[in-house]
C-alpha cells in the first residue's frame, strides 16, 4: 500500500501519540515521543509520518544517541519508536517509513543508525546485528534484536562502545 511520507508538524502531535499507543497497546512510546520533542537534540525532519490521503497511519522517529567508549564518543541515530496502525500493518507501510527515513537521515549527513527491534524486519534494509560491529546495548537484549546500519560505508568499522540513550528513554 503506497503512502506519502512527510515530516511531522504541530497539528500531528496528538495523532502521532495515538498511533503509537494503538500499535504498541500502551502509552509509553507516545509519551516518549512527547518528551523527546522537548529535548534540544530532536530533529524535526527525522520524525516522519505516513499518510493515506490526509490521514496519518504510521510514524517513525530517528533520534541522536551516542556510542560511547572510555576514550571517545561517536554520534549515531537510534530508530525508535516506529508504528503503523494495527489495521494496516503488514502492508508495506513500515518498510516505506524505514526506507524514506534512512534516505533522509543520509541526506542530512548522518552516518549510521542503530535499532532495537524485530530481527526479521530490519536486515532487509541492510541492518546487521550490532555484534558484527564493536557496539553494545546498555542493557541486556537478545543478540539478534540489536542492529546497526552504516549509511556511509565503513562509518562503523572503527567505532567501539556502548549506546548511551538520552534520559527520556529511561523515564517511560
Ligand atoms: C513494526 C511495524 C512498525 C512494521 O510496520 P508494517 O507496516 O507492519 O511493516 P511492513 O508491512 O513493511 O513489514 C511487515 C514486517 O514487519 C515485521 N513485523 C511486524 N510485527 C512484527 C512482530 N510482532 N514480530 C516480528 N516481526 C514483525 C515482519 O518482519 C513483517 O515482515 P513480513 O511481512 O515479511 O512478514 C508495525 O508492525 C507495528 O507498528 N508494530 C507494532 C509496534 C512495533 O512493534 N514497533 C516496532 C518496534 S521495533
Automatic annotation (TrEMBL):
<dbReference type="InterPro" id="IPR050276">
    <property type="entry name" value="MshD_Acetyltransferase"/>
</dbReference>
<dbReference type="InterPro" id="IPR000182">
    <property type="entry name" value="GNAT_dom"/>
</dbReference>
<feature type="domain" description="N-acetyltransferase">
    <location>
        <begin position="3"/>
        <end position="148"/>
    </location>
</feature>
<dbReference type="Pfam" id="PF00583">
    <property type="entry name" value="Acetyltransf_1"/>
</dbReference>
<dbReference type="InterPro" id="IPR016181">
    <property type="entry name" value="Acyl_CoA_acyltransferase"/>
</dbReference>
<protein>
    <submittedName>
        <fullName>N-acetyltransferase</fullName>
    </submittedName>
</protein>
Amino acid at each position: 500500500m503506497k503512502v506519502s511520507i512527510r515530516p511531522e508538524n504541530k497539528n500531528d502531535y496528538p495523532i502521532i501519540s495515538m498511533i503509537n499507543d494503538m500499535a504498541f497497546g500502551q502509552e509509553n512510546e507516545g509519551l516518549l515521543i512527547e518528551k523527546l520533542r522537548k529535548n534540544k537534540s530532536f530533529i524535526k525532519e527525522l520524525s516522519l509520518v505516513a499518510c493515506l490521503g490526509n490521514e496519518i497511519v504510521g510514524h517513525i522517529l530517528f533520534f541522536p544517541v551516542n556510542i560511547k567508549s572510555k576514550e571517545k564518543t561517536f554520534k549515531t541515530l537510534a530508530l525508535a519508536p516506529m508504528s503503523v496502525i494495527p489495521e494496516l500493518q503488514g502492508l508495506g507501510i513500515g518498510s516505506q517509513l524505514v526506507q524514506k527515513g534512512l534516505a533522509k537521515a543520509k541526506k542530512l549527513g548522518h552516518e549510521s543508525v542503530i535499532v532495537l527491534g524485530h530481527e526479521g524486519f530490519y536486515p532487509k534494509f541492510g541492518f546487521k546485528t550490532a555484534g558484527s560491529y564493536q557496539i553494545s546495548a546498555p542493557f541486556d537484549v537478545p543478540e539478534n534484536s540489536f542492529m546497526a546500519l552504516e549509511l556511509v560505508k565503513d562509518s562503523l568499522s572503527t567505532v567501539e562502545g556502548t549506546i548511551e540513550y538520552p534520559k527520556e528513554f529511561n523515564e517511560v
